[in-house]
Amino acid sequence: MARPKIALIGGGQIGGVLAQLAALRELGDVVLFDIVEGMPQGKCLDIAEAAPVDGFDVSLKGANDYKDIAGANVVIVTAGLPRKPGMSRDDLIEVNSKIMRSVAEGIRDNAPDAFVIVISNPLDAMVTLCQKVTGFPAERVIGQAGVLDSARFQAFIAWELGVSVKDVNAMTLGGHGDDMVPLVRYASVNGIPVMELLEQKYGSAAKAKEVMEAMVKRTRGAGGEVVALLKTGSAFYSPASSAIAMAESILKDQKRVLPTCALLNGEFGVKGYYVGVPCVLGANGVEKILEFKLDAEEQAMMDKSVAAVKGLVDSLNL
Ligand code: TXD
């Protein structure tokens, strides 16, 4: 039986790590596409020459022609500019929407049956544009932001409480911007509320709240924290890991519940916009959006985040 095929559009920082992770996990054969000649071929050759050491049996091919993505089961898009210090994700919209249009046409014309995971920023707007231009059903075009934003929130909680990251459960909803919604109420360590553990640690509810607020703030600004340190670009290891988890859930029909930027049809009070929400990801892409009740404060934060997404998406005049 033929191996699945994974096409990566954009062979930069995230694209390179995506190629390596897809190979290490033997998710399928990899095609790494970029407009820069030689670079995706060089990265693929480099990764492929590690196969005897790492022991993976997949093929890797660098490409500058969209024809090479034909037959891809999953396409992950990172094409576009990353942020530099001082920039917001939204500052990228003009240049990256031009790139996204051409990328989406390439996918539409060459891999019409693929599932598409968009990573390029500003994320919510770029997914919307990609879905519009490809014309693919919305359950086949999704965005990666929430897996990473949630992972950052989980990491901060684990470090604070001195427990394994594996036992922390926490999620963010909303857009991939500074108004994202880290859900404090449901954050837990194997089901034990994080707030209760913080109260035990600090001996007061007020101090626990203060510590949690700092973690929420750090989660919202976590992308910028990395940009400020790197100076030349934005995070790339963690976004790649996050998108690979989504691709794996689809390719292996795992039905994992992952925070996904998905097109909403009334869920959480949002209709016709792409926003981050928990989704069941399986062989059919977004198989289900898991809706649940938000309290008044959470809903207000969600509304604010969605308003920011709407402002940006509407500016594209799609
Ligand atoms: O969680 C998330 N969603 C994100 C998103 C977290 C971090 C960064 N995120 C965004 O991903 C970031 O703001 C950028 O918009 C993308 C890609 O970030 P990366 O760090 O990989 O950027 P690079 O290294 O500049 O790579 C982008 C590549 C580069 O090799 C260009 O030559 C290529 O995109 N590029 C194109 N490829 C194909 N087609 C076109 N038109 C094109 N234009 C540029």
Describe this structure in words.
This protein is of the alpha/beta class and 318 residues long. It has helices at 13-24, 39-48, 51-54, 93-110, 123-134, 146-161, 194-202, 205-220, 222-230, 237-251, 296-314, and strands at residues 5-9, 29-33, 60-63, 74-77, 115-118, 141-143, 168-169, 172-173, 181-182, 188-189, 192-193, 256-265, 271-282, 285-289. The chain starts with a strand and ends with a helix. 1,4,5,6-tetrahydronicotinamide adenine dinucleotide binds next to helix 1 and helix 4. It catalyses: (S)-malate + NAD(+) = oxaloacetate + NADH + H(+). Catalyzes the reversible oxidation of malate to oxaloacetate.
Task: Identify the notable features of this structure and list them briefly.
NAD, Malate_DH_type3, Lactate/malate_DH_N, 11 helices, three-stranded antiparallel sheet, alpha/beta, 44% helix, EC 1.1.1.37, binds 1,4,5,6-tetrahydronicotinamide adenine dinucleotide
Topology, element by element:
Elements: E1 5-9, H1 13-24, E2 29-33, H2 39-48, H3 51-54, E3 60-63, E4 74-77, H4 93-110, E5 115-118, H5 123-134, E6 141-143, H6 146-161, E7 168-169, E8 172-173, E9 181-182, E10 188-189, E11 192-193, H7 194-202, H8 205-220, H9 222-230, H10 237-251, E12 256-265, E13 271-282, E14 285-289, H11 296-314
Parallel strand pairs: 1-2, 1-4, 2-3, 4-5, 5-6
Antiparallel strand pairs: 7-10, 8-9, 10-11, 12-13, 13-14
Helix pairs in contact: 1-2, 1-10, 4-5, 6-8, 7-8
Binding site for substrate: 83, 89, 121, 152
Organism: Desulfuromonas versatilis
Family: Belongs to the LDH/MDH superfamily. MDH type 3 family.
